[in-house]
Amino acid sequence: MPRINERIHETEVRVIGSDGSQLGVMSPEAAIERAVEEGLDLVEVAPGSKPPVCRIMDYGRYKYEQKKKTGKGKGHAASLKEVKLRPRTDDHDLDFKLKNARRFLMDGDKVKFTVMYRGREMVHREIGRRQLDRVQELLGSLATVENPPRMEGRFLSMILVPNREAVIEAQREATKAEAEAKAAETAESQGD
Q1: CA–CA separation, 127 vs 47, rounded Å?
Q2: Domain residue limits at 84
């Protein structure tokens, strides 16, 4: 964390003005006085040099920009969420699982659909494949297939990734519907 104003304890410092011009080497007191005249702070930007380099700037804004720079790489890291199905999963259960999958896709996560086979179900693999085709159809443009359905032992799995444009459009529609519902609720409460 850089030292500012009175915390700078050097005998002399090289000063850079708020406009980026070199103001030369001076005592910290004179530099602080100059910064105060401009309504800014004196911030030590290169403590290791001889003499240390200080800049006249808005320290609050500087801290904000530094924080923004370090946080730029951070974002929502897409994680892989799994939704498990069986070859004979009921329509209601499938709808419920698809609701969760939509939520995952809207959050920007990848979704892995896995159909688990037991015993004699392995003979009818096409049922599971139809199940995954149906999932793909019901999710529509919201998801794109990253890995098509593939058998791995007793599991048939497929990975879907969110389609950015469709997700943004769905979020807009959800926000619009929410605003309309709120407006209708307000109008209803004022009518009573």
Answers
A1: 69
A2: 80-169
